[in-house]
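[INFO] parsing input record for 3-methyl-2-oxobutanoate hydroxymethyltransferase
[DEBUG] input buffer:
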Amino acid sequence: MTELSKQESRGAASRRLPTVADLRAWKGRRQLTMLRYFSLDEAAAAEAAGIDIASVPADIVLNPRYRAVAPTVFSMTGQTHLEMGTPDDYLRWCGNALNRGADAVYCSGSLKTVEKLSREYFPVVGHVGLVPTRATWTGGFKAVGKTAEAALRLFEEVKAYESAGAFAVEIEVVPAEVAAEISKRVGILLWSMGAGPGCDAQYLFANDILGYTEGHVPRHARAYRDFGSEYARLQRERVAAFSEYAADVADGALPEERHLIRMDPRELEKFIDAAERQ
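[DEBUG] output buffer:
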């Protein structure tokens, strides 16, 4: 039995899937863990490790096996406003996602869209600070809120999300002091990606934790393992194995006798006689 299958069979005996009400009740009481992961194997590992919250690509969280491997990880999914379209498109897409197992939906669209979703009782998560799909408005891929004026705009944006009905926002690459002060002054949950410990959850990507990020590694990332080297080693082993196979075929070393099915010689003789008469 594979590790993934074992995780499916075990289920979650020691904890239950938290609700939005649970997450709200924990505000200010303890730090939650949050991951972005990209496979069912990583989902199963998150479940076994007791991770609280996950941001999950739609094709993973909507997989019929997802809830078998991650039954108690509060899982949000979504698409950006660049991919989604109109507020009505968001509404239909998010309804489908919640019906198929997601616990919350991410919305990078306007506050009007957030309000539309929340009015239909969809648990909505917004995004402030460095928002990749809106980075041009805040000066590119850099920290947001480093001046008093910028921090105040950030505070107003968080309050606007709260007024629109979002229950949480990702707050990304913001000075720790600013995020902590904002978190103390709002009821909405703040999930920190590079915004310090004064928020309600610490959010990292699985590829950063596992050390297989390609390209830029953000300041707030921390690698706990070196999967990149292991993946490179496995690729070298793949190439070697394929090369050995090709050489065996060229040399006639494959297939071996043990790989073949043999026919009874008498039946073979009958077949050859019959084939020659046709």
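[INFO] Residues 7-12 have pLDDT under 50 and may be disordered.
[INFO] shutting down worker
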